[in-house]
Design a protein that fits this description.
about 180 residues, mainly alpha
Amino acid sequence: MTRLPLLELDEIPEEYHYLFTDEYLGDRHIFRAWAHNPEVLEATLEYLNVLYDQLGQRRKELVILTVARARAARYEWHQHVDIAREKGVTLNEMQAIGGGDLSVFDDEEFVLLQYARAVESGTVTDRIHDALTRQYSSSDIVALGLLVDFYVGLCNYIAAVDLPFEGGEFVGWAPDEGTVSELFE
């Protein structure tokens, strides 16, 4: 049971109802918890949208999955398995991230995910940073670091409020087609 009640739409000020449409946030538990402070929710979403636009949808999802796995953040992993499929991340790639083997990725994505792991754990070295600068601009590196830091904090927050999944069982660190279809389609 969550430590922070999940608000229903009629408990949220009407001026923020637009955030909870199917086309935008829908009915995800994380946003229903954040709705206790709708001004912060709205501002956070604006900030995240800027970060998301910087990295592109696929890379953003790869980074989020990498952070979720590194933090053993089941809620965030579960959510983003569903989201990442729509952004071009394959089940094979999710299984690789879930199993800690990034060798399936090309050089550009491999270094991105290595860097995300290093930022998450606070272990960025000159070697990792230099490899990243050969593939990505300084602007990309800023966005990447801030996205990783945001999701590290989000994973901690989700654990602090003990946020439950939206229906179904945990998809698992090595999601398979049958389980994914059952849970998300």
